[in-house]
Amino acid sequence: MSTDEKTPPREYRMTELAEAAGITVRTLRYYRERKLIPPPRRAGRIAWYDGRHLARLRTIAALLERGHTLGGIAELIAAFEGGRDVAELLGLGDPFAAPWSRETLVRLSPEELVDHFSGEATAENLAASLDIGYLAVDGEELVHVSRRLLDVSRKLVREGVPLPVMLAAGREIRAHADALAATFASLFRQHVLTDVPPGAAEGEPPSPEDVDRMARTLDRLRPVAHTVVEAEVALAMDRRIRAELRAWLGD
């Protein structure tokens, strides 16, 4: 076989999968009935399982070790499977989807996410994180859109902020951030990106040169937006903290 040919993924019969996962066939059947694992591929009367099923069984075992019940695991899996994938979240395939941010994606297994947030890693919180857009699904993994936001979330939870409260605050902050982005986008569109590419009025796609020119212009504007937002938020925090401290001390 040539070196560029891919080895087909391994498949398992039920007994082989149970042995590889370290569980009994009876337990495997129970998990399948509870829809904790995806349906197998059928070939006549034979059910074939693959690496995805083995990874799911190992995840279930790890979550059970961390104190989750099967009911809680089923809810987590349902939220996990209902999440948006990475391509949808990041808008991949759009020629203008070059990221404005410099955030680093973080890949997490479900059990690693549980380790990060302990008892706060519930199906409701997972669904909220997926809905807001902090998390996306990539195969059997979760992807957090920002290492910085993930680290801050963990710190706030350790400081005593309940994860649902933090997610609600994150949703509110996201709305304000979207409004700020709309202000900057309107400013740039009206006063900087004023050269409309030829053919745009007829719905023709811009040329690679036009896309490159606009991308370079936006890249120059990136630090401007960051500086304005950082400065305004810092000044606002100064004003708010002074006012709150006076109120706290007065009480």
Automatic annotation (TrEMBL):
Keywords carried by this UniProt record: DNA-binding
Pfam families xref list: MerR_1 (PF13411)
HTH merR-type domain span: 11-79
SMART domains named among the record's database cross-references: HTH_MERR (SM00422)
Gene3D superfamilies on file: 1.10.1660.10
Record-given protein name: MerR family transcriptional regulator
Species of the source: Streptomyces luteireticuli
Lineage: Bacteria, Bacillati, Actinomycetota, Actinomycetes, Kitasatosporales
